[in-house]
Structure formats: C-alpha cells, structure tokens
Amino acid sequence: MICYRFVASFFNHKKMGGLKKLEIKKNIQKEEDRNLSFRVFDLNEEHLNHYKNPHKKDHFLIIVIEDGTLQLHIEDKVHSLKAGKISVVFPEQVHCVSNAGPNLRGKIILFEEILFCSDILKNELSTYNVNLSTQLNCTVLSPEDFEQSLYTIRLIQGIYQKPSLIKKEQARFQIKIFLLGLIESVHGLHPIFTKETADKPTYVRFKKLLNEHYKEHRTVQYYAEELAVSPKKLNSITKKHCGETAIQAIHNRILMEIKRQLLFSDFSHKEIAFDLGFNSPSALNKFVKSKLKETPTELQQELAQMYNA
After folding, report:
1. Looking at CB atoms within 10 Å, which of 40, 48, 110, 147 has the fewest?
2. How confident is the model at residue 6 (pLDDT cuts 50, 70, 90)?
3. 110 versus 12: which is more confidently predicted?
4. Secondary structure class of 262 (helix, strand, coil)
5. Which of 30-34, 41-45, 185-189, 241-245 shows the lowest per-residue confidence on average (mean pLDDT)?
6. Nearest to 62 by CA among 187, 183, 240, 227
C-alpha cells in the first residue's frame, strides 16, 4: 500500500524549498567540528532523525551496523541492512532511512572528499565511478574484517571526540585505511575493478560529461566527439568498465533522472518531459515504456510503494 501521507508531506517540502541538501560544515556538534573534515556518531534515533526524509549530502556517509536492522533507500534501490553490513552513500545520491529495528546499534561516519590526498581514493571514490558506488552502497565483510573495521572506527571516534592537530591527521589516515579495505573487498568480488587500464580516464570523463549534458545531448556521436574517440571505441570502453554500451549508459542516466523527478519532485509528467528534452509527454511515455515495460504513472506508483513499504 502506498503511504500517501509520506509522499504528500515530502512534496510539500519540495514546494517549500526543493530537495534538502545536508552540508557537513553545518553539522556542528561541538566547537572543534568547525575545523574538522569528518564526524563520527553512534547510530541512534537522534542522529537518524535527520535522515528520515529523502535528501542529498555534500559529503560521504558511512553506516555501520553492529546489531539490529535498518532499511536504507538510495535512489531507486532499497538496502536491508543488518549486523555485519556497511553502507557507503556518495555525495549527491538521494537517500533516506526507514524501519529502524528496536535493537539498532552501530556507527555513522561523515567525511568530506577534501580528506583524500591519495590518488587511489580520488579515482576509486569518484562520483562517476558508478560501478563502485553501487557496490559500496551495501557491503558485507568477513567477521574478522568487520571486527577490524569496528576497531578502526572506534579509534576514529575517540579522536573525533578529543581532536588535536596530530590526532586529526591520524584520523584521516585511519579513515583512508578503512575505505581502502572496503574497496579491496569489493575488488575481490568484482575482478573488473582490479584492472587499471589506459582508457579508464576516458570512461570517467564520459560519465562526467554525461552527468552534465544528458538533458541536451543523448547521442553517442556527441560524447565520442567531445572525448576525441570514435563511437565504436567509446562503446568498447563503456562495455569494459560498466558492462553496457554508450547508448545504454545514456538511456540509463536519463531513466535515473526520470525516476528521481517522479518520486522526489512535484513536476507534472509534461514538465518532466520538457525538462529532460523530450518534445512531448507522449515521447516521455514511449521512452519509459520501451525501457521498463510500464508507463510513467505506473513507475511513479511503484517507486512510491518501494520508498514507503
């Protein structure tokens, strides 16, 4: 059953000021936070209250579950988190939490990208590395690795509570160790991530261009010209790095935005169609139906049910 009260209240929020974006610099729990690029909190009702409505962040969020259960909605996916699971939410990903279990216990880590000085982390945790961001949205470590991660997080939390100039550097180092461990665990499950190829920068540039221009440009030819490669070469690169052709990547980016606007905006289907470069609502309807075998109205109802199950 769709929770219309939730959807209505969220749409009212949209009308009053747009999709909320949380900024880490405004999350001040103590005076020292003004000069820190990270935060560490216990996972409890007080801190989860800020995350119950769909929103974005300008920073990374890590949720670590020690006990209990929690549902984490990221874009159009729902992740059921339980003890031993870790989730990384990337900047700009629309997300919220729901259905927190009675015995929920764990940690919340927030950090800015400025924390990185490692090229490995910068490349791996790029907003445009769609494959990795999707995998890190819900990760399961071995019991031994999970316990080691908890130990590291407790060290970071201790530093956060009583920071000093030297300890802040220690915390940055520990966060990077923790993240590299998560990335390594994903690499082990997905061998494609271990392949450092000469054309990986081209793929990252393609995803960045696509994110910036998908509303106006939706042909492979346009992106190939911008990247100074042939359409055939661009298809080869995208298939290697994300398992889809360039046109599939373009269409999937458009579909992601259609889903976002259907769920998180109060736009009519006509307004969505014109915002995304379709020449009519019927063209939007035809596109959605050809990709998902359902109409925008059916898709909207399905997304609302998923977010409010």
Report:
1. 147
2. very low
3. 110
4. helix
5. 185-189
6. 183
Q: Pick 185 or 270 by higher pLDDT.
A: 270
Give the three-class secondary structure for 10: helix
d(CA 162, CA 156): 10
Could you report how far apart the first and last alpha carbons of the chain are, in Å? 7
Helix axes 231-242, 246-264, angle to 10 degrees: 60
Which residues have C-beta within 8 Å of that of residue 304, sequence separation ≥ 6?
2, 3, 7, 263
Q: Which amino acid is at 177?
A: I
Closest alpha carbon to 202 in 247, 225, 234, 248: 234
State which H helix or E strand residue 110 sits in. Answer: strand 105-111
d(CA 14, CA 251): 26
pLDDT at residue 41 is higher than 50: yes
- Domains observed in the chain: 4-194 (2.60.120.280), 200-307 (1.10.10.60)
Beta-carbon-side half-sphere exposure of residue 239 (alpha carbons within 13 Å): 8
Q: Is the pLDDT of residue 248 over 60?
A: yes
Phi, psi (deg, nearest 5) at residue 51: -110, 10
Instruction: Render 41-103 in DSSP notation, one character per residue.
Output: EE-SHHHHGGGSS-BEESSEEEEEEEESEEEEEETTEEEEEETTEEEEE-TT--EEEE---TT
Q: What would the pLDDT profile of 77-121 be if each residue is shown by its tens digit?
A: 889 999 999 999 988 888 999 999 989 999 999 998 776 544 445
| Distance between CA atoms of residues 16 and 3, nearest Å | 20
Residue type, 289: K
Cβ atoms of residues 263 and 303 within 8 Å: yes
Helix (H, G, I), strand (E, B) or coil at 29: coil
Q: What is the average per-residue pLDDT within 184-212?
A: 70
